Amino acid sequence: MNKYRLMSPGPTPVPEKVLLRMADTMIHHRTPQFQEVLKRVNVKLKQVFSTKNPVLIMASSGSGAMEASITNLVSAGDKILVIKGGKFGERFAEIAEAYGVEVVEYAIVWGESADPRIVENMLKENPEIKAVYSTLCETSTGVVSDIKEIGRVVAKTNAVLVVDAISGFLADELKTDKWGVDVVVCGSQKGFMLPPGLAFLSIGPKAEKLLAGSKLPKYYFDLKVALKSYGKDDTPWTPAVSLIMGLDSVLDMIIEEGLDNVIERHAYLANITREAVKAIGLELFALNPSNAVTSVKVPDGIDGVGLVKKMRDEQGITIAGGQGSLKGKIFRVAHLGYMDGYDTMTAIAGIEIVLKQLGYDVKFGKGVAKAQELFK
Amino acid sequence: MNKYRLMSPGPTPVPEKVLLRMADTMIHHRTPQFQEVLKRVNVKLKQVFSTKNPVLIMASSGSGAMEASITNLVSAGDKILVIKGGKFGERFAEIAEAYGVEVVEYAIVWGESADPRIVENMLKENPEIKAVYSTLCETSTGVVSDIKEIGRVVAKTNAVLVVDAISGFLADELKTDKWGVDVVVCGSQKGFMLPPGLAFLSIGPKAEKLLAGSKLPKYYFDLKVALKSYGKDDTPWTPAVSLIMGLDSVLDMIIEEGLDNVIERHAYLANITREAVKAIGLELFALNPSNAVTSVKVPDGIDGVGLVKKMRDEQGITIAGGQGSLKGKIFRVAHLGYMDGYDTMTAIAGIEIVLKQLGYDVKFGKGVAKAQELFK
């Protein structure tokens, strides 16, 4: 028996009852039955996104919604500010380039987080910037951004703030309306505990005003068309019916646990992980670590790629390695979605075992004991 | 108990074992485990698409792949020929317009099918046309196109042939390579017997040559990027893991039944439906009817919208009404995907009952008996 444990920052495990909900009879999407589901999902999404504005559902991965957040708000030749501190900040810049949008780059050393005062200064120096693109949790480094403060800074300008919250959402706090976040982009396969295949995009009035002026071509991801259907509790294209059924279930789970409790649980699991890896003698990589994923420096002399591989192939625990320039230098353990303390403890136990196999001097149970101590 | 019967041209019923396959443990997409699935799915897709060329899998509905088939092949200002005989032909034209591509329109009366000789003449008159866009089955009218002959005509020119086979695929014959079809666009929720959320796009060498020259902006649907990942049995963005697991299963089912047998079964069910509705005294709408869906004229004096509604709400059988200008004038019964003779017979029995309720003079069992006679 090879039991499979998914501890990567997406996809994350899907609760069994949600898997079974998605295995129910397929129904047609243009029927009162499905419209009723969509109607209550739309209400619950607003609640979970802490917004009174529309949250659109797309049949695509998160990158599709990231593209929509550029092609619908600006035009070719417009300037946007992209906060680039990892692979997903880079993705925003790549999309902008593909569409001829000019990127003013705020490049951060990977592992560090954006300084809101620098964002403020860059906006002052470039008053023509139409939109600021940030990540909530930069999945590739495990860093969380200070969206609250960035929101305060951007709100004072004409620019809108777009946040890629794909991996951080439901793990790190994000008060969409209160913090002045105009667009939040999410995916289904992270904190939402669903399979990949759905993306979400919330859009506030300041961003909605930009839709009419955006001249970039689009069709499938045209938010004007999507909003028109949304107003009728419909979707412009055939929706991913089974995933939306699952969404209905996970939103109930999230609301039942309580949004604040969900985030607190992630903070708790992240804290256990951080303290346990420190107890093993390892060093954290992110200066401002996210609650979604903990990035850990691979100790000198240890094979970081091998560590992730042995965890997966021998221990049955799928964690993530470093991406791009961080390959082999960090590993990343998620505590995201359908996770509790024992899941986290299991990951730590596996890491202890594999580190020892790779020649690292670790006393079994040190990290595990730290986790146990912190259990609530 | 309200048993739900899905007889619409997408979504279609999903076999129970496929539903359960998709309910299996979520796994990570960048792992040897998932790569192995993708590798065999890629091989089986080629077989089912009757092509030796790549068949790309996208996380989107079919409309996303339709968009990709325009934005990757041509540039703004280029001319394309769109065969427009219903809602989905119109969609190609709308996408082209959104991207500034010039559409030469071959408008057909809804219910009729394209004349390949007219396509030939239009290509002669407009030698600058870069691509021809046709549907296999125009879902809105139930008409099947003569793709074999259109393929022969287009193959003699520099233009490529793109076929939206979303609803017709696996029901109507389509020999991709043999018939010179350069791009086939498909969706998961029709003949493939899966939930909506995946799109497929096959691309042959004549179309692939156009990718480099296309100047239209794109990112999520960039086929150059998708082909690069495809070559490594990978996907550029997070794939819809659970739906691809289901795809692995349905492809086995299709290959086990045999591609020709699958199409023959659809032809058989379509024939039963056509003969049965004629036995009831109704008239077929499509001149060249598809094997995917049978469109039937609503008899004079009968409420066509009410018929579809009563079928759904009182009989539990979801069929489709007419779209656009055909609203209330036709109804459409699918025999698509996971369907056999008794499913078809059930739809006919329901139609008899509802027609009688609406005041149409029908003798119970007439259509049903015709179906029974034709049973194999």
Helix and strand layout, with pairings?
Two copies of one chain form a homodimer.
Chain A: E1 5-6, H1 16-22, H2 32-48, E2 55-59, H3 62-71, E3 79-84, H4 87-98, E4 102-107, H5 116-125, E5 129-135, E6 137-138, E7 143-144, H6 147-155, E8 160-164, E9 183-187, E10 198-203, H7 205-211, H8 223-230, H9 241-257, H10 259-279, E11 293-297, H11 304-313, E12 317-318, E13 320-321, E14 330-334, H12 341-357, H13 366-374
Parallel strand pairs in A: 1-12, 3-4, 3-5, 5-8, 8-9
Antiparallel strand pairs in A: 2-10, 6-7, 9-10, 11-14, 13-14
Key attributes of the depicted protein:
Aspartate Aminotransferase, domain 2, 376 residues, three-stranded antiparallel beta sheet, 13 helices, alpha/beta, Aspartate Aminotransferase, domain 1, homodimer
Numbering strands along the chain, what is their spatial order in the largest sheet of chain A? 2-10-9-8-5-3-4
What is the CATH domain class of the largest domain in chain A? Answer: Alpha Beta
Oligomer: homodimer
Total strands of chain A: 14
Taking the alpha carbons of the first and last residues of chain A, their distance comes to: 31 Å
Given as residue ranges, the uncertain stretches of chain A (5+ residues, pLDDT < 50) are: none
Q: What fraction of residues of chain A sit in β-strands?
A: 15-25%
Put simply, the count of helices of chain A is: 13
Main sheet makeup of chain A:
7 strands, mixed
Structural class of chain A, by secondary structure, is alpha/beta
Name the CATH superfamily classification of the largest domain in chain A.
Type I PLP-dependent aspartate aminotransferase-like (Major domain)
Mean pLDDT figure of chain A:
97
Helix percent of chain A reads 40-55%
Radius of gyration of CA atoms of chain A, rounded to a whole number: 21 Å
Shape of chain A: globular
The CATH architecture category of the largest domain in chain A equals 3-Layer(aba) Sandwich
